[in-house]
Amino acid sequence: MSVTAAKGFTAAGIAAGIKENGNPDLALVVNNGPRRAAAGVFTSNRVKAAPVLWSEQVLKSGQVAAVVLNSGGANACTGPKGFQDTHATAEKAAEVLGTGAGEIAVCSTGLIGVTLPMDKLLPGVETAAGRLSEHGGEKAALAIKTTDSVHKTAVRTSETGGWTVGGMAKGAGMLAPGLATMLVVLTTDADVEAEALDRALRAATRVTFDRVDSDGCMSTNDTVLLLASGATGVTPAYEEFAEAVRAVCDDLGQQLIRDAEGASKDIKVEVVGAATEDDAVEVGRSIARNNLLKCAIHGEDPNWGRVLSAIGTTKAVFEPDALDVAINGVWVCKNGGVGEDRDKVDMRYREVHIVADLGAGDATATIWTNDLTADYVHENSAYSS
Amino acid sequence: MSVTAAKGFTAAGIAAGIKENGNPDLALVVNNGPRRAAAGVFTSNRVKAAPVLWSEQVLKSGQVAAVVLNSGGANACTGPKGFQDTHATAEKAAEVLGTGAGEIAVCSTGLIGVTLPMDKLLPGVETAAGRLSEHGGEKAALAIKTTDSVHKTAVRTSETGGWTVGGMAKGAGMLAPGLATMLVVLTTDADVEAEALDRALRAATRVTFDRVDSDGCMSTNDTVLLLASGATGVTPAYEEFAEAVRAVCDDLGQQLIRDAEGASKDIKVEVVGAATEDDAVEVGRSIARNNLLKCAIHGEDPNWGRVLSAIGTTKAVFEPDALDVAINGVWVCKNGGVGEDRDKVDMRYREVHIVADLGAGDATATIWTNDLTADYVHENSAYSS
Q: What residues correspond to the site Cleavage (chains A, B) (predicted)?
């Protein structure tokens, strides 16, 4: 499944020795055509890793033949040497695949500020190329894990058109919009031009990965790629195709949140009654990033005062005495003050649903986040990552 | 000392029974003149507690006769009833002190969304008025504590002018600019007009309390008041007076950071080489609010990649390959890449000093924050606060 669910793609995942513990750390995804259309969305962090700078250039042509991905090192903040390393990686893949380096996208993930062991990585590209398979999607998904406890894949197939959108993702921390710290490769065997791929991908990430915010920290390496082989020969209606891309992105985004570092609760922050969607997103993010609220949720405390104090820091349209807040279906805050009995709120389960009604319009947005736990602190303080 | 270090002030702190555990919870600070000039700075959170809404009105006259402060309840998000309670508190203080309610400022701190026990609070105001003393400053400082482990006071006296600026503060969590979750009352026996008090107070809070950011969470109740009795009859030069106010605010701000909930490290984030002071502040805040970095510092890990990824989320003027970062004096990042050996960084001590050089100009700013610890999570999840 994963990136090889769609026809026309092969993939491999191997242990190249980049990770010192011997775990899989190198993935290769190849588009065997007949088409090689592609689109990409990258981190909006201004400190961009070398592979992001490289792949942004590659994607400008709207053509990608293959993607090389490594875990075990982000190749970020590594200066000119880091960019040369990414370039050499693309050259090596182009050489073994018989194409041009300008059609090879590169993604890296791991610790920032460490150069990659190229003596391991370049032979690894050759080994991976020798193991490419139409069933290699799972292995590729395993090879891009960092602190992920499970690998993440998702697939949607059109019942009428016979085409498929599939993909893989990694990410478990430093998850914040624009994008979450994630590498995602999506593939499709539908026959779609690069321009439509780009439109569908941007529309999908805007309402999925961009609304996953585990810890408010934005990465230097985020990359989401969508590759189309055209192997089915079917060109779907744009809306149906875009919806399939959105569904796969949504599925993968949910998997990222459920695997977030140290989390014990998945929190759905739904903002309704906003004057604009931008207002709804701003308020949702502010609530989702409030450490005090995230601690309260961890303690199963329906502390709605912390929701209101988070809303109050935004520029959204609202009147403080018109704010309503529900936690798990109980409207604990009405008209900016005390509402239903907070003892009625049942918070025993992993999923927590917060609704904030701004009473200012009809726009809505949903942001997904997690609670803040001692385990998160431990995972991010006990060793470098 | 505290608010009674300056001549012309009396204060009291008592246990009125607002807190169920019987700890001190009500403070009264009275300006006995001959002047009653005053200035105030309040939270920029748009969800403001009733006492903030009340005191903002009081301060418009530039005159304050007394301040009533309670811990054990924030009186925030309590609707019209909450505002009536604040009004009744001011009326009671005015009655027992023989002045008008329009000259009584009110401050509250504690849990949001709970109305105050007025049957305890109003008799408490009367009791406190009966215990007013020129030596009551310490007791007042003790009565405004919430999760504070210690009470905070500071005093500066002019060697040449003989006048004093003193004050008290509370705050240990929900510390973020605009302002930190704090109540602060400053007093002076210098003879200063309300306008100059306001100017000096705003200048001081901008570079002290507004740059203390323990957890990025902004409160609904923040209040900083400065009261002048004129009891020395001395009108100092503005610059000397403003500097004394700044020094007292800086001292109290440092005490807040050192007592932040669950913290094991105090982190000084110094941004230099910025194009503007606003840029320096934006970058400093972004670094200070990065949960991943705060966890790394807790683990004594000089993870400068997390500093760069935080800088990259800002709109400040900089080039990624011109960024330098020092941690405890070691330039671990040079020109956006690997710098000196990170093993040279000694992080055993409580104070951690991060310098980020943007290489874009001469402006600087310093933001103070703390590490993120399991103890912070525990303090903010184990019970409502």
A: 180-181
